Structures are given as C-alpha cells and as structure tokens.
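Shift notes (night). Ran Class I SAM-dependent methyltransferase while the centrifuge was going.
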Amino acid sequence: MVFADSWLALRAEADRRARAAVLDKQLAMHLRRRLAGGQTLLNLIDLGTGSGANGVYLAPRLPGPQHWHLFDHDAALLARATTRVASAADEAGRTPIVSSRCGDLADRVGEGFHGMDLVTASALIDLVGDRWLRLLADQLAAAGAALLVTLSVDGGWRFLDAGGRPVSDPDDDKVCALFNAHQRRDKGPEGALGAAAAPNLVRHLQTLGLVVMTAPSPWRLALDRADDRALALALLQGWLDAAIEQSPGEAEGIRRWGGRRRAWMEVGSGGIEVGHVDVLALPATRSDD
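Came back to this:
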C-alpha cells in the first residue's frame, strides 16, 4: 500500500491526539530498566515508517541515547522521514542516530529483530494478513524485544452531537459493515485483516508468553475545527467509495446516506469518533519485566 503525503499530513494531528499515553509510559519504564542494566544505546526499529511521525512522537517520550532504524517500501517517504526523525530528541534532549532502509516489510520481518530493544509500527497491521502477524510475534519473542503497535482500526465509528451523544442514521450500521468488509479485501499477497488485526496479534503474543497491554486510541474529530472537519470529510468519502465498491447494487442508497451525513457534517457542530487500539508487548522472560 502506498499513501500520499497529503493523507499522512491530514491525519497527523488526529493520530497524535489519539495515542494511548499510558502505554508510552509503560514502554519508557521498560526501556529505562534496560539502560539501568548496562546498555548504553537503545535500538528502535519503526516498520512502515511513512512520514516518520511515529519516531518523531516517540523519541521525546522515551529515554536515550537512541538509534532509530527506519524501514519502508517508499523511498521518497523514507528520505523525508529520516530527516524528520533526525531532528527529534530523546527525553533528555539528545538527538538520535538515524538509519534507514527501503524494502519489503515481509522480507524485513523475516530477518528477525536481533539486537533491537523496540519494534514499533503505526497504522500498519490492519493492512496485513495473519501469517505476517504470526511471523512478527515469533521474531519479536525470539529477539526479546518490546513491541508497540499503535492506531490499528477496531472497526467502529460514531457520529456525535455537540454534547457527545450519538446521532444515528438508519443506514450507519450497514455502511460501516460494508466498509469493514472492504477493509479485509486483498491489499497484498495475504489480504488484510482490518479490525481483526489487533485481536489476532494480541492472541499470538500472549501464546508466546509476552506481557501484553492494550488501550483504546480513538480519533475524536470536532467538526468545528477546520482540520478535523477536513479529515472527517475525507473519511466520509473513503467510507462511501469502499461501501459502494463492496456492494455496487446498493450504490444509490449508500450515496443517499453519504449526502445526509455530509450535510450534517458541514453544519460544523458535533463530531466523529473513529475507533483505534494501541498494543504494547513486553518480554516476560527478563527479570526487569
């Protein structure tokens, strides 16, 4: 999958607000204990780096010194991400070492994570299949690394009034179900798990004995904020396109639903909540965990 810079920029602020800070703090504690045990440098690999937002977000929330290993299949995005992450700093203000590599994610996960303290990815695992997730969990456990996977869709979204109460439409559930079915269509050699990805990953990690924590990380978009409304309207168009592609015979009704929802959103009151979940896994075999 290739994502445009414009889409990554549009979602960046919503991503930042949504992330589950409680898991960031647990991860930071774990990594501090590793440094206290004698390590002098933390090695952190970001899979599917994209714009570099994940590293930019995490670097100041984690101890250091840090060496970020960025990996993506889009060379142009990766070059810009490398510059962004190199301009970040750890919680003590030290700039990280940054290296990057362009290639196929399946090949990279197959190589394993020996020497890595953290494997992380954002808005990625709902685009892959279960075999990839099993391999990720196996390689993570073998390396004794921590894992932080953020902003994976959970399959739910809601329209809310200004007071946070649901504003229902008779066709909301149908369109949501069609969109979620479309999410599971082929996006690679294995297809994609969509909302099932995070629960499947948690199950694989727990089977291997890792300590797993999850926390909700929903987008909460306020329609009276211009940037949020622009993202909400882009989401609506994406939901419409996917639902129609999934069920062409229902296109007319889906478009009518979209028209009602667009008119409601353009009033600029209320908001949309889009469900995501963050997953943290820590190795259970180390005495510091």
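Residues 5-282 form a domain with the Rossmann fold fold (CATH 3.40.50.150). The two ends are 36 Å apart (CA to CA).
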